[in-house]
Design goal:
mainly alpha; 2 helices; elongated; about 80 residues
Length: about 80
């Protein structure tokens, strides 16, 4: 049976683990370290909608009618015994 230790702590500069991890000392353990990072935005003065609008009209669709194309693709999935 596995025993998990989950603590949100600040690791000291000397690299020693806090006492909350005492049960793991001297034992084989799998360590996962998750560090929070500040979220950086490309341009803080623009909202998401404005940045997305920069891509408006830039997609070149290979088909005239996407719905008809999708129906054709699904027809290819049909098996003779399902009809």
């Amino acid at each position: 049976m596995l025993h998990a230790i989950e603590e949100e702590v600040v690791l000291p500069a000397d690299g020693k683990l806090p006492e909350a991890f005492h049960a793991a000392f001297g034992r084989r353990a799998r360590i996962i370290v998750l560090l929070s990072e500040p979220v950086e935005s490309a341009e803080p003065d623009q909202d998401d909608a404005q940045r997305l609008m920069a891509f408006a009209g830039t997609i070149d669709w290979p088909m005239d009618d996407p719905v008809a194309w999708q129906r054709q693709q699904r027809k290819e999935w049909d098996r003779p015994w399902d009809r």
